[in-house]
Amino acid sequence: MGLRAGAQVSPGLALLMWLTAHCSCPQAQGFSQGGLDASRADLWASANASLLHSFWCQPASQLPRDQLSALIRAMATRRVLLRAWQLSCLANLATLHGLQDDFELHPPDLLLFYNLTQVREADCRAFTHRAAQGDTELLANLPDQRAALQRVALACLGGPRLRLSASDLLLLGVLVCDMDASSIVAADPRVLQNLQRCHRLTAPQQAALNTLLASGGTTLGPPGSWNLEGLRALGPLATYISSSLWMQVQQAVGLDFFGSTVATYRAGRLSQQDARRFVTGFLKAKAESVSSRPKRGTATGRPCLRGDITAATLRDDLFLVHYDCVQLESCLGSRVLKANLDPLLQHPLPAECQRVVKAKLARVYPRGVPEEQLPLIASLVYLYSRSEIGQWNVTSRDTVVALLASDVALENQTEAVLQKYLDHNGTLTGALLVAIGGSRLCWMSARQIQAIRPSEFRLAGALDISSCPQSRKDVLYAKAREAFGSTRTTAAYYRFMRPYLGGAPVEELRHLVQANVSMDIDTFTNLNPRVLQSLSVGNVTTLLGQNVGDLQKARSHPTISSWLRSLNRSALGELGLDTDPAGLSGPGRSTTVTPNTVPRGSYPAPTSGLPRHSAPASGSPPAHLGYLPLSVALPSGLLWLLYWGTPGLSQDCSWDTRTMASEDGAAPAPRAGKRGLVAGVHHVRHSRGPQGWSPPTSSSQDTELE
Description:
single chain; mainly alpha; 1% strand; flat; membrane; glycoprotein
């Protein structure tokens, strides 16, 4: 499939692709010998911003300093959210060009990846303040960089603090999310504003939060004086309030906030995890309060005490307050359940109540839940066994997406749902794979993965499989090789294969070493640790290229530390790392900052979250489809077709309308020019790549796109 002649491409789109992918000569039309002037930079920045999300380091490395600077400033202005693998190499490019001093004009997320040793003392506070507006979850694979940020921030404050003041907290921003519990309890009460930005709190941090709230020293005052406005101001932190504190809150205030929170959840503005945590804690407090009162005698058989549940009952945001799981069992009739399954499951039911609903559905539908009802029970799917799912009819792609697009389905459910779909002559299309997310590939059987057609895998493009076990990474690598192996250029081949290299054998990595791909550190940390042991220091240095310095930022990552422990002192010195064996002991060494201020270890990358990236490739968080920018919402393969199908420039900057396409119809690949892959310095040194893939040669014959 290719772009037909006459296909319309917007001028802004063509301009951006031209600048970021093809033009490497200084005298291109519209550019001065020195590069972009201010007005041209503004024009560039006003180009289609959604495609900035498709940023790729290799073509960007060919840009002169002012063009790269304009690109970074445009990302900051448009608040473009990049993934960790994009940010790490972009930070190295910025450092290489001496752009790091312009940090105040750069995206906060990018500052998280900068070389902190190059931050001038005079800029320390300004740099820390801006970096602390970023998302530290992007550093999930760079534990040492995350710890170093904490040390730099504390150094800016003049050293360790027994108590973080309000001004300290303003400077530290999101970095407080890595503080230990004792530091949170001792901090100024305005620490709540910092904690609101945390993706999650550890159990000790949750305890510290409740200690702080119980003290009455926050703006909310003591729990007995809390009001609805103050609780709402807590935002997601209110979902961590303990049941013991809810028992101290005035009943009317608690009920008002419960109804408000459930309404927020039903409107889709609160995650299921947060809502269920809140409901569980609140209802536990209510149950404990009731259990402390004298018990009234009850008849056997758990009679319905609250009255039969009706459609109107289910529309009440306080439904779960009035009907606990025992009363749900007793008061919910089959007819009401069948007619009102959707509004019932829009409530954040505790796990016990979910099991009650599942049991009732089994009595209503003894032969299995009908397909028209399946999309409604997505929140329950984790409760179903493989044999129970075997009773379902799953014939629609929409049903598959409804059941699997959330994080509820587990491994067995994923495989079983997909098998039912395949049994009904379904096809795992590229669009379906994108919709359910790359993490679902981790839970497919090897046979199901093999059933994906190469053409559909190409259309799915770069899916995040970083959370997969090694066995699945190996299978997915083989499928990716089948799909992309015929790509004719090194650059295009690496672009497609990058997310799947975690399953690559040592032979593949050695071919990429010779191709000078400058692998980003995020991708490197996801390589097979056993395969990595077979690479020499020289192999790794060449494979990482300009990103080799990032080893210091990730040396405590299990994959990196395992490889480093296999090296001798001389090799460590060659990499610029200290030769103290204690330096390889793990994250604990680098995360100890002060007795009272200790950064928390890195977290697993979230599987849902911000508009930020679905399935962050390589360590970045996955995105809800409703928030996806155009460049991500479209199937990735189609984006590459657009990207590489746009007429490019030859090395003399004349328009070249020819582009290369793979022999089996793979997404078109860019023509290879005389310049190397990185900044025109590196060149392909080998004559043969992985099986089925040959690097470009001067005799390669281009194939016209249909």
